[in-house]
């Protein structure tokens, strides 16, 4: 780090740069103008070096400050990428390459689902989607919710068709169970007081279903539905474009958030995974 002592010394020198002290036996009290341009050149050279030291030190400090400014993974691409990064880390390694969570059960390929368990899962899922759609379509003190109306990702109507099909096959449709009821209640509470946390759940529910959810639906259909594709796993239009449209909306909404609000949203991801996981495990009940 540059010392400030040479700077103060150089300032003293340049108050009267044209005078110097003659050093000799007869003239140590006598001063005269320094007309030797080589000596003046040395003085100016020294001053230039001091200026360069100050500029260099200032530049180093700025670079250090920039280096210590925390950059969040995915931040440069938009807030949705930040949410995706956090969500991927909560997957197991066999589910996603970024996954860090240890498996807590057999992989999906080894699941042994039942019709009754799958119906419990579909009924509870419908309750959650009903709640999400009701919240974004209702008048709210948080106008940003209106951005997520009629996105094309809605699942309630499709789930209603699937449950009607099961009913026609002679299966009794159960009432929602505690995992679905608890999650729906939690979403309603969040939506009234904590928009950042609510939008975290909105993102993870819809986007997880469009990815891993479809894979699970396919595996279950192969084992107990004779490979029938349910309406739950169908979308009107190009799914990738529907998802991109919602990404753009989420990024726009998050632009007005502070860094603290964004972090609060990211921290809610674990709760989203827990609630959704409780409902998903109903398939094996």
TrEMBL record:
<keyword id="KW-0150">Chloroplast</keyword>
<dbReference type="GO" id="GO:0009507">
    <property type="term" value="C:chloroplast"/>
</dbReference>
<dbReference type="InterPro" id="IPR016053">
    <property type="entry name" value="Haem_Oase-like"/>
</dbReference>
<keyword id="KW-0602">Photosynthesis</keyword>
<keyword id="KW-0934">Plastid</keyword>
<dbReference type="GO" id="GO:0046872">
    <property type="term" value="F:metal ion binding"/>
</dbReference>
<keyword id="KW-0809">Transit peptide</keyword>
<dbReference type="GO" id="GO:0015979">
    <property type="term" value="P:photosynthesis"/>
</dbReference>
<dbReference type="GO" id="GO:0004392">
    <property type="term" value="F:heme oxygenase (decyclizing) activity"/>
</dbReference>
<keyword id="KW-0560">Oxidoreductase</keyword>
<dbReference type="InterPro" id="IPR002051">
    <property type="entry name" value="Haem_Oase"/>
</dbReference>
<protein>
    <recommendedName>
        <fullName>heme oxygenase (biliverdin-producing)</fullName>
        <ecNumber>1.14.14.18</ecNumber>
    </recommendedName>
</protein>
<dbReference type="InterPro" id="IPR016951">
    <property type="entry name" value="Haem_Oase_decyc_pln"/>
</dbReference>
<keyword id="KW-0349">Heme</keyword>
<keyword id="KW-0479">Metal-binding</keyword>
<keyword id="KW-0408">Iron</keyword>
<dbReference type="Pfam" id="PF01126">
    <property type="entry name" value="Heme_oxygenase"/>
</dbReference>
<comment type="similarity">
    <text>Belongs to the heme oxygenase family.</text>
</comment>
<dbReference type="InterPro" id="IPR016084">
    <property type="entry name" value="Haem_Oase-like_multi-hlx"/>
</dbReference>
């Amino acid at each position: 780090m540059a010392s400030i002592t040479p700077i103060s010394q150089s300032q003293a020198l340049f108050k009267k740069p044209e005078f110097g002290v003659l050093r000799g036996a007869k003239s140590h009290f006598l001063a005269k103008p320094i007309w030797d341009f080589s000596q003046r050149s040395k003085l100016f050279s020294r001053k230039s070096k001091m200026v360069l030291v100050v500029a260099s030190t200032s530049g180093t400090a700025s670079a250090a400050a920039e280096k210590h400014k925390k950059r969040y993974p995915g931040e440069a691409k938009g807030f949705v990428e930040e949410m995706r990064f956090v969500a991927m880390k909560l997957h197991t390694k066999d589910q996603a390459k970024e996954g860090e969570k240890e498996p807590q059960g057999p992989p999906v390929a080894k699941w042994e689902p039942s019709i009754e368990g799958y119906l419990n899962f579909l009924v509870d899922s419908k309750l959650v989607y009903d709640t999400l759609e009701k919240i974004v379509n209702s008048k709210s003190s948080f106008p940003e919710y209106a951005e997520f109306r009629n996105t094309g990702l809605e699942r309630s109507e499709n789930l209603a068709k699937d449950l009607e099909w099961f009913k026609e096959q002679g299966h009794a449709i159960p009432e929602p169970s505690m995992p679905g009821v608890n999650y729906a209640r939690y979403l309603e509470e969040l939506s009234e007081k904590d928009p950042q946390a609510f939008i975290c759940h909105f993102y993870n529910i819809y986007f997880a279903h469009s990815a891993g959810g479809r894979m699970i639906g396919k595996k279950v259909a192969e084992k107990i539905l004779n490979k029938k594709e349910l309406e739950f796993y169908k979308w009107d239009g190009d799914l990738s474009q529907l998802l991109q449209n919602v990404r753009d909306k989420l990024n726009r909404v998050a632009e007005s958030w502070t860094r603290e609000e964004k972090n609060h949203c990211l921290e809610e991801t674990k709760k989203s995974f827990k609630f959704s996981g409780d409902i998903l495990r109903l398939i094996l009940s």
